[in-house]
Design a protein that fits this description.
Layout (H helix, E strand, L loop, with lengths): L9 H13 L2 H17 L4 H13 L6 H26 L2 H4 L7 H12 L4 E5 L5 H10 L4 E5 L5 H12 L3 E4 L2 H12 L3 E5 L12 E2 L2 E2 L5 H9 L3 E8 L5 E5 L11 H20 L17 H4 L1
Helix pairs in contact: 1-4, 2-4, 3-4, 4-7, 9-10
């Protein structure tokens, strides 16, 4: 098994799960960094090529070759460290809350759930250890529904099993489940879904960093159908190793008579806010699947 299968292999996940249980941080972080260097050195890996392409577009196609190499390595370090931390703290839940900065964003989400103000759709960005932060706020008592990809690989299904064991409710985004989630939102619950994971065979391609992107618009459909507001949220790794949540204001999407315009304009409104968050620390944006695959030949 090659290192490129690290995030897509159940066997690699199980190994990381048990290694992280016993590996102290003074050894775990250097090991994660070594793996990142190994991955970054193999420019033929699909995940390396995906990161290069995404980071290149983020820079408005202005990074030099050396800058792009450094950017890829920085992203991979964040990915491998997040992988280690997720499993390390899964075995140490009493320490996990200390990793999260208690700020107004966290308090706003907690207060929303307890206030009875109705449902809320939280749109998440894959910044740094977003899974770890989601795991932490779940353990702290926040009740949410996590909406995952409609199709689960063996590795992802195994990870979701661990998240459910930690107290999270994870639902694949199938058509039947989306209707179920709309009812849950209408009943006043909080749903969390990612918006920056690319997918194939999409009908719509909203503009992201000024280019048509292979990103879903399901969150627009959910929010409008359930008539609930939206919050865009991400987490940043701080210099001291803790994670701090950042977010947009809570806002309402706009209904339009034209269905395509309704989906595209609302999605691009959310993605415009996402751009501003990502550009605060682009090396912490850990998406390694190409969002603009048609540009791969230009980068090569």
């Amino acid at each position: 098994m090659g290192l490129g299968n690290l995030t897509n292999s159940r066997k690699a996940g199980v190994l990381a799960y048990y290694v992280s249980k016993f590996l102290p941080r003074r050894l775990g972080y250097p090991l994660a960094d070594r793996i990142a260097h190994r991955l970054a050195s193999d420019t033929q890996l699909a995940m390396v090529q995906g990161i290069r392409l995404n980071q290149w577009v983020l820079s408005r196609c202005n990074l030099t070759e050396d800058e792009l190499n450094r950017s890829v390595l920085a992203v991979l370090r964040n990915i491998t460290r997040a992988f280690y931390e997720q499993f390390y703290y899964m075995h140490r839940p009493e320490q996990l809350s200390l990793k999260i900065v208690d700020n107004d964003v966290f308090k706003e989400i907690i207060s929303w759930e307890k206030s009875g103000r109705g449902g809320l759709l939280v749109c998440g960005l894959h910044m740094s250890s977003f899974d770890l932060v989601y795991q932490a706020i779940t353990m702290m008592g926040l009740k949410t529904i996590g909406l995952s990809l409609p199709e689960e690989s063996e590795a992802i299904a195994w990870q979701h099993k661990l998240r459910r064991k930690a107290g999270g409710e994870i639902i694949p985004a199938t058509m039947a489940n989306l209707k179920h989630v709309i009812r849950r939102l209408q009943a006043g619950e909080i749903v969390v879904t990612g918006i920056d994971r690319p997918m194939e065979n999409l009908k719509y391609h909203p503009r992201f960093f000024d280019l048509p992107a292979h990103l879903p618009v399901h969150y627009v459909q959910l929010a409008l159908a359930a008539k609930v507001p939206v919050l865009l949220m991400a987490s940043f790794r701080q210099p001291d190793g803790r994670f701090e949540l950042t977010s947009s204001e809570i806002f309402t999407l706009q209904n339009k008579t034209d269905r395509k315009a309704e989906l595209m304009e609302n999605a691009e409104r959310v993605l415009d806010l996402a751009e501003k968050i990502i550009l605060k620390a682009p090396e912490q944006w850990t998406i390694f699947h190409p969002i603009w695959p048609e540009l791969a030949s230009s980068l090569a």
